[in-house]
Predict the 3D structure of the following.
Amino acid sequence: MPAIVVLGAQWGDEGKGKATDLLASQETIDYVVRTSGGHNAGHTIVVNGERFATHLLPSAILTPGATSVIGNGVVVSPEALFRELDGLRERGVTDVEERLVVSANAHVIASYHSTIDKVTERFLGKNKIGTTGRGIGPAYADKVNRLGLRVADLFDEKILAQKVEGALELRNQVLAKVYNRRAVEAEQVVEELLGYAERLRPMVADTGLLLNRALDEDKTVLFEGAQATMLDVDHGTYPFVTSSNASAGGVCTGSGVGPTRLDRVIGVIKAYTTRVGSGPFPTELFDEDGEKLWKIGGEVGVSTGRDRRCGWYDAVIARYATRVNGLTDLFLTKLDVLSSWEQVPVCVAYDVDGVRHDEMPMTQTEFHHATPIYEYLDGWWEDISGCRTFEDLPPNAQAYVRALEEMSGTRIWAVGVGPGREQTVVVHPEA
Ligand code: GDP
Ligand code: IMO
Ligand code: MG
């Protein structure tokens, strides 16, 4: 399987880090690639009981021998990148910088992008998106407005100065006149960015060429998604989304690898649902069940420390994610969290103003009005975190997995029963 995609099927934090790390430990992975988003991501890996979190770097940075790639579709804050590299070095992972390649075409997040992100959220008040405040939206906005800075620009002082001045001409008007903020000095920004150039230069390459050549040579490339399908700027719950294509299409545009080269697309999905930030969430719980999921699941964000909103599994979203991404498999995580419910509700369809919808409603208004239609599956009480084969799982947990597989329209390749790499039950070893 030379080209494998791992991506989020819900609203993020499904366990993409764990899935990536697991695949990297099972197969010989030559390259692990991030193709969208930036340091708004927080991916957790637990190896031999030791916990690591990655943000801008691909999770398999910890896999010996694998080369990590930051593709052209990613927005790169050099400051955040160096902080992350230094953090790993301090924890004894010393060769990361030598195994990292950054696309010359990736866009750069400058300090003014995060300033604008934060003031915009404040301006929106109760209508805010609940962004991570990392400058992701403004950096992508500049990209689309053709006012963006790219990694290669850091190596040409004259061009960089021109571009920063061009971007700030517009941005400063908005900062001063709309938000009543001080204008940002172009010179200062240029100086700061130039300060990153020397350390960054050895890592920069034509990553599209590199990856296509690797696939020509039958090397294995793993694309690690960030954010998720329901946060995708086109397919998610717009405007309560991130500013990139976090679904499968973004893998191609964000890497320069064509769709015919992708062999397997794995959607990571929790056995229930969580969401951070604002926006509609039909199965959200506001009662003690929600609190129990939050508590047992440890549902606190890795990047921002914000509490995640919790709710039951939504099979409408699973089917939607299957369709939008052309999923070949699902990786169902956190099944262990569901031990100790008499019955586990699963959303099979929505009621929208009295009309049943088996598929995602067409309009945002309808989705905002959607209330879940539940099917109740029998629960189990056993601690399943030590299970290693499907047969080890209690019969009702097996039935839960099979029912979700049926409802979601894709085979469930594996099930997570704990945060550790080894806490995984492979349901379809043939996949
Ligand atoms: P990502 O952003 O998709 O990589 O996910 P996060 O790392 O933000 O959040 C997932 C959380 O669930 C992390 O704390 C993981 O260690 C944890 N996790 C992943 N899979 C499992 C699982 O099967 N069971 C349990 N209990 N925790 C898991
Ligand atoms: P991983 O990769 C969960 C959410 C934010 C906010 C919205 C827009 O760890 O799954 P942004 O800063 O991207 O402009 O914020 O998207 N969000 C995430 N939620 N997991 C993530 O990443 C997220 N990245 C962004 O909370 O609602
Ligand atoms: Mg996360």
Observations:
- Residues 157-178 form the longest helix (22 residues).
- Residues 276 and 308 are 5 Å apart (CA to CA).
- Residues 8, 12-13, 40-43, 129-132, 134, 136-137, 226-228, 231, 242-243, 276-277 surround 6-O-phosphoryl inosine monophosphate (ligand 2) (CB under 6 Å).
- The first strand starts at residue 3 and ends at 8.
